[in-house]
Write a structure and sequence with these properties.
about 140 residues; Four Helix Bundle (Hemerythrin (Met), subunit A); 6 helices; about 0% strand
């Protein structure tokens, strides 16, 4: 089908693309405000769900599992961990509960290979992501 040299070229191109992506993310992290860091978590979550849907459609179980696990880690170790329950009041507690629910649902989506649950998790997070993005200019203005 393809020559070994051609296959190696494709593999090298993919590795270089991955390296450029990693450098871009690391550079973004170094320059990011706290608001931007949370935005990056929301974006990473949505990207992981998009990937999981594609892997489910292609019956790539291992990759699907990795993508859903990544989304769950972003929620649990990133978004939920960033909450200040002591000073955040009811809103922080509500977000904490939502994030706990999403983590459970993502685990169930993974076990059941259920696109409907993935869509539910995406639909629950999208309004938060949009709201967070919308307040960005106000936050950035107050920092200047």
């Amino acid at each position: 089908m393809f020559s070994p040299a051609y296959s190696r070229s494709l593999g090298q191109a993919a590795a270089f693309a991955g390296a450029y992506h990693t450098v871009g993310v690391e550079t973004g992290l170094a320059d990011a405000t706290p608001h931007k860091l949370i935005q990056m978590l929301f974006d990473g979550y949505m990207e992981a769900l998009r990937q999981a849907r594609g892997y489910m459609a292609d019956a790539q179980i291992e990759q699907k599992s990795r993508a859903l696990s990544k989304a769950a880690r972003i929620v649990d170790e990133g978004l939920k961990a960033a909450l200040n329950l002591k000073e955040g009041g009811r809103l922080a507690q509500d977000l904490h509960d939502l994030y706990a629910y999403l983590t459970l649902r993502l685990t169930l989506a993974n076990v059941r290979n259920d696109l409907g649950i993935v869509a539910e998790c995406e639909n629950l997070m999208e309004p938060l992501r949009e709201a967070w993005q919308a307040i960005g200019p106000q936050v950035n203005h107050s920092l200047n």
